[in-house]
Design a protein that fits this description.
- Helix 1 packs across helix 9.
- This protein has one domain: Rossmann fold (3-Layer(aba) Sandwich), CATH 3.40.50.
- It has helices spanning 16-30, 46-50, 53-62, 70-75, 92-99, 102-106, 128-142, 156-159, 179-200, and strands at residues 5-10, 34-39, 78-86, 89-90, 114-121, 145-146, 165-168.
- Strands 1, 2, 3, 4, 5, 6 and 7 form a 7-stranded mixed beta sheet that branches.
- The chain is 45% helix and 18% strand.
- By secondary structure, it is an alpha/beta fold.
- The longest helix is centred in the C-terminal third of the chain and has 22 residues, at 179-200.
- It contains 9 helices and 7 strands, in the order βαβαααββααβαβαβα.
- Bound molecules: flavin mononucleotide (FMN).
- Flavin mononucleotide (FMN) binds next to helix 1, strand 3 and strand 5.
- This is NAD(P)H:quinone oxidoreductase type IV.
């Protein structure tokens, strides 16, 4: 839908969620949305990042990319949040960003928008759905409208996550996104753009 404003706000240590966020941004632009693709700031100590080659490389590659601000959420008609699964929960980096939005929440500036999420975990299932449900607790407090994908398209029977979109990175944490995940990411983007346009109008 034309002129829908979508913010894709995410945290990624080793690049998986970053790749999913880029895929979503492209699909939403194709669907006519204006997109802000924004990462939240890294909070981990330098020695933790340095201890993991994939994390270090991804940090160096993306450290100058635009950072999410409260205005990105206030500006948007729709927001897609991306986070790796951390013990079945939202990564603290994304949670910290959400926790800075108190003033906007207090003014009602986060309500009545369309929201959904995407995640990844190393193991199959691995806490993916609990991570998305934990993320949505915050959306309910915003007064947001959770636009879950459900099984609203036959392709959702292939990726199998009605709560959002998720990917299994595998034991080496480097499984590439497959066709079912890419199709589900495109669907999530197209669906939230369509629903956010209807909500706005
Ligand atoms: C502290 C920590 C906790 C994690 N918890 C889980 C978990 O509960 N289940 C799981 O399958 N993977 C878990 N993982 C693996 C990450 O979810 C996986 O590496 C991540 O989704 C990759 O995303 P990224 O490349 O965008 O950082 C954990 C990783 C870390 C560092």
């Amino acid at each position: 839908m034309a002129n829908v404003k979508l913010a894709v706000v995410y945290y990624s240590s080793t690049g998986t969620i970053h790749g999913m966020a880029e895929r979503i941004a492209q699909a939403a632009e194709k669907a006519g949305a204006e997109v802000r693709l924004r990462q939240v700031p890294e909070l981990a100590p330098q020695e933790a990042i340095a201890s993991n080659a994939a994390w270090s490389q991804h940090f160096d590659r993306t450290k100058d990319e635009p950072k999410a601000t409260a205005d990105d959420i206030v500006w948007a008609d729709a927001v897609l949040f991306g986070t790796p699964t951390r013990y079945g929960n939202v990564a603290s980096q994304l949670k910290q960003f959400l926790d800075t939005l108190g003033p906007q929440w207090q003014q009602g500036l986060l309500a009545d928008k369309a929201y959904a999420g995407f995640t990844a975990s190393m193991t199959a299932h691995g806490g993916q759905e609990s991570t998305l449900l934990a993320l949505y607790n915050t959306i309910y407090h915003f007064g947001g409208v959770v636009v879950a994908p459900g099984y609203t398209d036959p392709l959702k029977f292939a990726d199998g996550n009605p709560y959002g979109v998720s990917h299994v990175t595998g034991g080496n944490n480097d499984n590439p996104l497959g066709d079912p995940e890419n199709a589900a990411l495109d669907h999530l983007a197209q669906r939230i753009v369509k629903v956010a346009g209807k909500l706005r109008d």
